[in-house]
């Protein structure tokens, strides 16, 4: 059982998480927050102990034991321009990385655009989804799944999952982790408006693929080149044999 008081004591934000909804079971925290008319405030956070249809990108599944991990979504309603969305994607993974470093001294690696790895294994996943009115983004939700106290991950995965419990060798407080994450998330979100370079540099520091030869799969197309850098908006700059390309999406792996 998630202890809301324990979480609230350590929450140091102005807006993010001040409107907090706790559910036993939902289909998907992202879907509920995108659709809900009741929980419609900027910064609202919805945490569910279990998702019957937890999602990853391209309708891949997010599988997480009930009551052992963190699966939650944050609602943002600030009409961010399209370009800022990618930065929010990067800063969400950076906030997870910094929370894991601060609380458990884990050595975290970030994989473009938003995978969080420890010892080459996946410890968290992030999925941004939005609804639009005309050209304006009306609601943006940041869905986060962090493997916290789950002891093992049966099944087949492209990248092997791991949890804090497995890496830190101890069961940890989900309440403390959620408050730490939201504190960092709000700080980074504010920073993104004034000093986006700070976010980009902190993200770069944790990405081991920059400078390496990579393969990028985009729908039916495969691109091969050197992961040169991320640009000012956080898009991946790929140097292929004859040109430099800006990559907006795709699955990146080392060649
Ligand atoms: P990939 O991790 O293969 O690059 P992705 O970035 O699209 O994919 P997400 O959208 O974040 O990943 O999450 C979906 C993927 O994560 C699924 O394909 C599944 O293999 C994997 N996955 C599902 N549940 C977990 C979990 N609890 N821990 C780690 N990985 C998981």
UniProtKB/TrEMBL annotation:
MF annotations from Gene Ontology: ATP binding; biotin--[biotin carboxyl-carrier protein] ligase activity
Catalytic activity, as annotated: biotin + L-lysyl-[protein] + ATP = N(6)-biotinyl-L-lysyl-[protein] + AMP + diphosphate + H(+)
GO CC term (a single one): cytoplasm
Entry-linked CDD domains: BPL
Gene3D superfamilies registered for this protein in UniProt: 2.30.30.100, Bira Bifunctional Protein, Domain 2
Pfam families tied to this protein: BPL_C, BPL_LplA_LipB
This protein's record includes keyword Cell membrane: no
Occurrences of domain BPL/LPL catalytic (ranges): 5-193
Name the UniProt record assigns to this protein: biotin--[biotin carboxyl-carrier protein] ligase
